[in-house]
Amino acid sequence: MEFLETLYNEIVGFLGISQAWEIIKTGDFSSFRTFDGVKSLIYPIIPLLLLLELILGFIYKKPQTKVYKVNFLIYIFNRFVGRFIAIAMVTLCIGWFQPLAIFQTGPTWYWFIYAYIIWEFGHFIYHYLGHKVRLFWCLHATHHTPEDMNLSVTYAHFFLEAPYADTIRTTVCLLLGVEPAMLFLIMFIDGTYGAFIHVGENMVKDARFGFLNKIMLTPSHHRVHHARNPLYIDTNFCNLLNIWDRVFGTYQEEQPKIKPEYGITRKINSGNFIDVYFGEIIALGKDVISAPGIKNKLSYIFMPPGWSHTGEHKTSKIVRSQYLTSRST
């Protein structure tokens, strides 16, 4: 009975319906007009869409079962090893860095816009470093290993990535004056939309969303980000507002004639949990051990993925540059 109760609580927790269910049981539906009540209605959207997406996959005979299986194992593993680390890091950052803020924002609509732009800047920094520093890529690569795009990819993360990401994003926001209450609101919005942009073609075929594709980051943009095609690799690092991708030259729209090929460039067994979760760490360890001299060993850790002490570099910057050059000739 204890096992069944634990299983029930895990299912309810995954679906995110516990808070809404408690409100419904009280019969006080006015609670849904509060911020917490609205959150209780929004939390279940992504898990329920994921289940619908999986059902549609079976109907269309495109279930992507290998991806769902491995991402489910990652979700279960992370529930045990990294449940509260990210929350603890955010709390510590608030205590450390809020007193150092150059000024403080207020609870107004214009400060909210400012705060969201700053949050996206912090997100860009974390995400860019996650692709350009191999040590950080080891934390982020698990999210890029699925060879199909669907909502289960939302749960494919190495357990240390969230603390690393939230430390950078939170620190940037706090130092630039974003107050904690507004920060938590933005984190909620960002987390919900950040999950949705992984929606797969079984549910949304053309994810450009018309004119919205020009003014915000759509699932189409994020499909490009997850692609390993030379044109697409290491682009679209933002999450909702693509302003910083445009500023730093990493913006790329999906091309009708170039279908995204998902996954990472390293040959990988995407159905193997160990290879998906620890493969990049193992590969880095092998390179560090075999590299001659301390300088080369450290370079493998901090240089971009694809860097080689032999000079035969295959970094994303080189791969994309060579592709663009070949297109222009």
Description:
The chain is an all-alpha fold. It has a domain at 69-274. The protein is built from 16 helices and no strands. Helix 6 (85-97) packs parallel to helix 9 (161-175) and helix 7 (109-132) crosses helix 9. The N and C termini lie far apart (69 Å). The model has no long low-confidence stretch (mean pLDDT 85).
What does the secondary structure layout of this molecule look like, with pairings?
Blueprint (H helix, E strand, L loop, with lengths): L1 H14 L2 H9 L8 H8 L2 H15 L5 H17 L3 H13 L11 H24 L1 H7 L20 H15 L4 H17 L15 H4 L3 H7 L17 H6 L24 H18 L2 H10 L13 H13 L1
Helix pairs in contact: 6-9, 7-8, 7-9, 8-14, 14-15
InterPro entries: Fatty_acid_hydroxylase, Sterol_desaturase/TMEM195
Protein name: Sterol desaturase family protein
Main location: membrane
User: How large is the count of helical segments?
Assistant: 16
H/E element sequence:
HHHHHHHHHHHHHHHH
Residues in helices, as a percent range: 55-70%
Round the Cα radius of gyration to an integer and report it: 21 Å
Largest sheet: none
Shape: globular
Strand content: under 5%
Unreliable residue runs: none
Structural class: mainly alpha
Beta strand count: 0
- How far is the N terminus from the C terminus? 69 Å
User: Mean of residue pLDDT?
Assistant: 85
Summarize the structure.
It is built from 16 helices and no strands. By secondary structure, it is mainly α.
